Amino acid sequence: xxxxxxxxxxxxxxxxxxxxxxxxxxxxxxxxxxxxxxxxxxxxxxxxxxxxxxxxxxxxxxxxxxxxxxxxxxxxxxxxxxxxxxxxxxxxxxxxxxxxxxxxxxxxxxxxxxxxxxxxxxxxxxxxxxxxxxxxxxxxxxxxxxxxxxxxxxxxxxxxxxxxxxxxxxxxxxxxxxxxxxxxxxxxxxxxxxxxxxxxxxxxxxxxxxxxxxxxxxxxxxxxxxxxxxxxxxxxxxxxxxxxxxxxxxxxxxxxxxxxxxxxxxxxxxxxxxxxxxxxxxxxxxxxxxxxxxxxxxxxxxxxxxxxxxxxxxxxxxxxxxxxxxxxxxxxxxxxxxxxxxxxxxxxxxxxxxxxxxxxxxxxxxxxxx
Length: 370
Description:
- By secondary structure, this protein is of the alpha+beta class.
- It has 2 domains: 178 residues, Aminopeptidase (3-Layer(aba) Sandwich), CATH 3.40.630; 145 residues, Gcn5-related N-acetyltransferase (GNAT) (Aminopeptidase), CATH 3.40.630.30.
- 32% of the residues lie in helices and 30% in strands.
- The chain has 9 helices and 14 strands.
- The strands form 3 sheets. Strands 5-14-8-13-12-11-10-9 form an 8-stranded mixed sheet, with helices on both faces. It has a 4-stranded antiparallel sheet with strand order 1-2-3-4.
- The longest helix is centred in the first third of the chain and has 19 residues.
- The radius of gyration is 21 Å and the shape is globular.
- Keywords: Transferase.
- It comes from Cellulomonas shaoxiangyii.
- This is GNAT family N-acetyltransferase.
- GO terms for molecular function: acyltransferase activity, transferring groups other than amino-acyl groups.
- InterPro entries: Acyl_CoA_acyltransferase (IPR016181), GNAT_dom (IPR000182).
């Protein structure tokens, strides 16, 4: 694609912004630019964002401070089309206050002019000013390459990203280290009922009478909210993290409720199932699906966790099948699910493959020391 040479400036968005504010067009432009970048990377709009999501996120900053910088073409009109690049910064406020997450993107036709580098420097400057010593970022890839000179392998030794893609070259040129590769897998619905029946029966037999599934939509029942918070805390460090410098992220009931309201404010809905250990009356596993506001046919797979002390009883398969059963009842129009798993997370990958998930690209997890 030919590059367009233009003049531009960087503008930081206000920390809190509503659709009625004078600078709201900058946020609208950011959303549109980011969606164009996502579309160029993945070839579809399943992972697109909405203005409602973006504005809602800026209203929910109790646990994460959100900074936004955009590259704007010179001009007189407040036109969202003038936004050609962005930097999104997520700075954790309760735990992991030494780090954060950065997302930098530039429209393909405006690359090669230093816009990405300027946005990257702005993000790092804001992070340093906030006392951060590390940052994380991601690169998205529609295809995971085979091993060889055209691939970069994560520091874990598992998973690769294409060495020649612009995002990889940019990350390496700016001092980022590829710490982990996460496989993106997709499941097309409906799943063969016989496949589900086989896995459901085998999981129930292995789990036995000591375990039962409980499910809900959107709001966790009050009786489970404290235990669900504990599961979220355990989730923060239970999954493989490669070389990412991430510590335990402590949740409580208030955070569960705040996060639920954030999802609802974004126009999203939650479909969740958990496994109760009946003798103790405690939740020991869970799985979450997120229904985005922009599509009736697509959902994200969120977290899935089985507590270490209850593994080996096929509870992961039990709760995943329960989720597919529930989704078919409450969202029968959904046709595809996307999930992400570290390449070294062999147990969860095996469950997903057995259910019919197939690889469709990968995500590089990068880290930089500031």
